[in-house]
Write a sequence for this structure.
């Protein structure tokens, strides 16, 4: 990893942007990485502006590596003002662009952010009513999962792969 990238990640970790739950979110997406067991949830709030529905705010929580947190931090800033279509067209590479190119071993970290974003945007309307009143924290989700031994189904749309992340806890 280059010194420049390391410095940018360090800076993003020191002062992560939008690292929190969002109680009034319109859409929520959670994704886990089958590569490393890391997990990330993204919340999105829309607003109407000039007849367009655009992203007003995006926030995240992560049980992930520093790179995933740094990418989510810069990505949630970049998403503001974009339509759902514009946001879902963004690749992990584009979401991580403010940090600079990621080394091959860290590309899946950006794909984790991309997956959470696409998961949120994929079911935005349907999720809204369901999640507003009952949305658990990411920690709650993991705790519940550990207790019930139920599988967490995750979608990494970057590769159109649907994978089970039930081994998250086994890997830690
Ligand atoms: Fe798993 Fe970065 S190492 S998301």
């Amino acid at each position: 990893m280059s010194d420049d990238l390391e410095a940018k990640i360090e800076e993003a970790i020191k002062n992560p942007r939008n690292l929190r739950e969002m109680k009034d979110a319109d859409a929520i997406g959670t994704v886990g990485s089958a590569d490393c067991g890391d997990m990330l949830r993204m919340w999105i709030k829309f607003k109407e502006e000039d007849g367009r529905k655009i992203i007003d705010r995006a926030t995240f929580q992560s049980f992930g590596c520093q790179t995933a947190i740094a990418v989510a931090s810069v990505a949630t800033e970049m998403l503001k003002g974009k339509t759902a279509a514009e946001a879902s067209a963004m690749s992990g590479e584009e979401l991580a662009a403010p940090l600079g190119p990621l080394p091959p071993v860290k590309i899946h970290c950006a794909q984790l952010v991309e997956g959470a974003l696409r998961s949120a945007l994929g079911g935005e309307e349907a999720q809204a009513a369901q999640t507003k009143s009952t949305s658990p924290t990411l920690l709650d989700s993991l705790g519940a999962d550990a207790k019930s031994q139920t599988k967490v189904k995750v979608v990494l749309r970057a590769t159109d792969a649907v994978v089970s992340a039930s081994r998250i806890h086994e890997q830690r």
